[in-house]
Amino acid sequence: MFKEVLTNHSYDMLSSMLKKCLFLCLLMFVYTINIQAQEKDKNEDKKQTEYKERGKTLDTQLETIDAVENEIEDEDLEESEVELKEAQDALKEDAEDSKIDMEESIEGETEQLQENLDEEAQEQIEESVEDVGEQIEESSEDLGDQIDESTENVSDQIDETIDEVDDQIDESIEDVQESLDNDSDEDVKEHNDKGM
Fold first, then answer.
1. How far apart are CA 180 and CA 174, in angstroms?
2. Helix H or strand E encompassing 156
């Protein structure tokens, strides 16, 4: 009987101890899980903080980069504007120099051309005068020949006309002489007839 009671008591104690151990194990497990969760949350918070700090750092770096780029762009733009202004001034000077050179070249070519034109014009005038003189001489010779020919023709015509007039005069004289002779013969005949 005593053994049974002891056994039951031992069993209850053992069962109670087991329950307490299980409860403690459960508490330890829950505590451990809770601690791990807290550590995980801390790690997550830490990571989030690090990410935020990195993001801020990156934003700062990006802003710095943008500022540097803008400054570089501004400097480059200013340098480009200065270079462009210098290039424009250089081009303007070159254009003015080229204009002056071109004007001088055109003036020199114009003077040379004028001299050449004057020489050519003088030569052409001299050649024209010579040609006109030759043409006048040729025309004078032709005109003299024509005058000589015309004079000869007129002289021939005058001679022919004189010859014709002489012939006509001779014929008229002969006709008158014949008429006079005929009249004289008739008068003599009539006189003779009257005398008889």
1. 10
2. helix 2-195
What is the rounded CA–CA span in Å between residue 13 and residue 131? 163
Distance, in Å, from the CA atom of 28 to the CA atom of 117, rounded to the nearest integer, reads 124
Tell me how far the alpha carbon of residue 10 is from its chain's centroid: 121
Euclidean distance between CA atoms 16 and 1, whole angstroms: 22
Has this prediction a pTM greater than 0.70?
A: no
DSSP string, 77-119: HHHHHHHHHHHHHHHHHHHHHHHHHHHHHHHHHHHHHHHHHHH
CA 89 – CA 83 distance, rounded (Å): 10
Q: What is the pLDDT of residues 93-135, one digit of tens each?
A: 877 887 788 778 778 777 887 787 777 767 877 787 777 677 7
d(CA 167, CA 179): 18
